[in-house]
Amino acid sequence: MTKIDVLLGLQWGDEGKGKIVDVLTPAYDVVARFQGGPNAGHTLEFNGMKHVLHIIPSGIFHQDKLNLIGNGVLIEPRIFRQEIEGIAEKGVDATKNLFVSKKAHLILPTHRMMDAANEQAKGNSKIGSTLKGIGPAYTDKIARNGIRVGDTLASDFRERYELLKVQHLRMAQTLGFDVAAFRIDGMTLDEYENVWMESLETLKRFRFVNSEYFINQCLREDKKVLAEGAQAMMLDIDFGTYPFVTSSNTITAGVCTGLGVAPTAIGKVMGITKAYCTRVGAGPFPTELFDETGRRLCELGHEYGATTGRPRRCGWIDLPALRYACMINGVTELYVTKPDVMNDFDTVCMCTSYEIEGRRTDEIPFEYNTVQIDPVLTSFEGWKQELQGITEYGKLPEKLQRYLAAIEEQTGVRIAAVSISPDRKDVLFK
Ligand code: GDP
Ligand code: IMO
Ligand code: MG
Question: Which of 43, 175, 270, 347 sits 20 to 30 Å CA-CA off 157?
Answer without folding.
Answer: 175
